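Predict structure. Chain length: 193.
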Amino acid sequence: MTPNRRTLSEEISIRYRRSRIKGATYFFTVNTYNRRPILCISENVGLLRQAFHKTMQRQPFQIDAIVLLPDHIHCIWTLPADDYNYSMRWRLIKNYFSRHCQDKYEGVGTKSRKIKRERAFWQRKFWEHTIRDDEDFINHVEYIHYNPVKHGLVTAPKDWEFSSFHRYVKLGMYDVRWGTSEEILFDANIGNE
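Prediction complete.
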């Protein structure tokens, strides 16, 4: 091997380097395996709530905004001041869900998943973005709340049940009619799903 050439595993490691800022706020996109639409089924919604609750008991974090769609989740978390390990938290959430979810919702896994005894509920990787400032935070919160409209699931954010939008309305941060009168456009870099 030529000294200046990287191995494939080194290349992959470099491409998947994650931000590690203690106490930071992060935006995430987490997809189901092969984008299977299993998340908004009532029993799976409850299971996800349990997975988040159990994980937050073990490894605290704050959920600033969230939307659950049939085949993916967008959310913003703020981690404790002395912690940056969101990957471990996602692993706990995904593992809890995978261990407790009914087999009928599992996808057909690849050979490598079978060898590793890895269930086919989630994509292995997830998208993460470190929130840079207040404007970036607001843009990502709005992206999250408008996402069900973007995907054609409803005509207004208020009509999507599985969203922190309703909490924001109760807190007076949104008018309930937000996002109903015109399409809201976002920077191409936001969401990156």
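Summary: The chain is about 35% helix and 15% strand.
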